[in-house]
Design a protein that fits this description.
This protein is α+β, with helices and mostly antiparallel strands and about 300 residues long. The chain has one domain. The chain has 5 helices and 15 strands. It has a 9-stranded mixed β-barrel. It has a 3-stranded antiparallel beta sheet with strand order 4-6-5. It has a two-stranded antiparallel sheet with strand order 1-2. The longest helix is centred in the last third of the chain and has 27 residues.
C-alpha cells in the first residue's frame, strides 16, 4: 500500500494499492478464443490437453503469411512455456469476455477495409509514411490500450505516484503517462499517440479512461482524424504478485458493439531488456532502396525498347 493520493487538504492522505513494478501477460490465452474451445471457461482437464499441445511452441503461422516476416518463427525468442490463464480460479480461453463468442466484433465494412489495406501493403513502397507504424518500429497495437499479448514482448513496467501512472510496454518501448485525478481530456482536436489517458480511483481499483486517439491508432476505415474511440481500463490488485486488468473498448468505426475483456498480469521475476526493432533499423531502408532499384531497372528497360 505505497501509492498515495491526496484528498481534500494537504494533511488528508488516502492510501491506495501500489502497482509499481514489472508485470507480464505471458500466457497461452490470447485476445480471441481459438477454435479449440467453444466457451470462455473450460475444465482443468481440457486445459491440460491444450497446454500439452501448445506449451513451448511458437504460434502457428501459415506459410507465406504476409503479416509475418520470413524466418520470424525461427529467429524470435518466444515465451510460450506457460499455460492458459486462470482468473478467479477459472481457466480462461480468451481475454475477451464480451461478446460471448470470444471474437472481436469487427464490422463487414471494417473487414473489407483491412483486407484492401493488406493488399496495398504488398505493393506500396513509395515512401516511409506509406508503411505501417508497427513496421517502422514507431508503435504497435500490442502496447495498448488495451494491452495484448502475443508470445513475446509481454512485459509491462509500471510506476505509480500520487499524480501519474507511467506504463512502459516492452513492445516498441511504448510509454503511456496517465494523469491521476484529472477531470477533463485534452481538447478534441489534440490527437496523441496512444491516446490521452486520465484516471481516478474507485476504492482500490484504478480506472483509466483514454480518448483522443489519432486515426492510425484506431484503424478507422473512414479515415476520420477525429475517430470516436474510447477505452476504459481497470487495474485491481488481487494478490501480492497479481493484478486483474479489465478493459472495455468502444469504436463504432470498426466494431459493431462495445467489447470487453479481462487479463491477468503476474509479477515478472526477470528484467525487461531493451527492445530492438531491426525492421525499423534496417528493413525499411532496404525495402525502399529495393523499390527504387526496381523502378530504375524498369525505366532502363523502357528506354531500351524505345518506349
Amino acid at each position: 500500500m505505497a501509492g498515495l493520493s491526496v484528498a481534500g487538504s494537504p494533511h488528508a492522505v488516502v492510501k491506495h494499492p501500489d502497482f509499481t513494478g514489472l508485470w507480464t501477460s505471458a500466457s497461452l490465452t490470447g485476445m480471441e478464443r481459438p477454435d479449440d474451445f467453444k466457451s470462455l471457461v473450460v475444465t482443468e482437464a481440457e486445459a491440460a490437453k491444450y497446454e500439452k499441445a501448445h506449451r513451448g511452441k511458437p504460434p502457428d503461422i501459415p506459410p507465406g503469411d504476409p503479416d509475418h516476416a520470413v524466418g520470424g518463427v525461427e529467429s524470435e525468442w518466444w515465451e510460450t512455456d506457460v499455460g492458459l490463464a486462470r482468473i478467479r480460479g477459472q481457466v480462461r480461453t480468451s481475454w475477451i469476455v464480451a461478446p460471448a463468442d470470444g471474437q472481436l466484433p469487427i464490422s463487414p465494412a471494417a473487414k473489407a477495409f483491412f483486407k484492401a489495406r493488406r493488399e496495398t501493403r504488398k505493393i506500396d513502397f513509395d515512401n516511409p509514411e506509406g508503411r505501417e507504424a508497427s513496421e517502422r518500429c514507431i508503435e504497435t497495437d500490442g502496447a495498448g490500450p488495451p494491452y495484448q499479448n502475443g508470445g513475446y514482448n509481454d512485459n509491462l513496467e509500471m510506476v505509480l505516484t500520487g499524480e501519474h501512472l507511467v506504463m512502459h510496454s516492452e513492445w516498441m518501448s511504448s510509454l503511456r503517462i496517465v494523469r491521476l485525478g484529472a477531470k477533463d481530456h485534452l481538447p478534441a482536436a489534440m490527437r496523441v499517440p496512444g491516446g490521452d489517458s486520465i484516471a481516478h480511483w474507485e476504492g482500490e481499483t484504478l480506472v483509466v479512461e483514454t480518448t483522443n486517439f489519432p486515426a492510425r491508432d484506431v484503424d478507422d476505415p473512414k479515415g476520420d482524424p477525429k475517430a470516436d474511440m474510447k477505452t476504459v481500463e481497470r487495474f485491481t490488485r488481487v494478490g501480492p504478485d497479481e493484478l486483474l486488468y479489465a478493459f472495455r473498448v468502444t469504436n463504432p468505426a470498426v466494431f459493431t458493439q462495445t467489447w470487453a475483456g479481462e487479463m491477468v498480469l503476474r509479477r515478472a521475476v526477470k528484467p525487461m531488456y531493451e527492445y530492438a526493432c531491426h525492421e525499423g533499423n534496417y528493413g525499411l531502408a532496404n525495402m525502399l532502396a529495393g523499390a527504387r532499384h526496381v523502378e530504375a531497372e524498369a525505366a532502363k528497360a523502357h528506354a531500351r525498347s524505345g518506349g
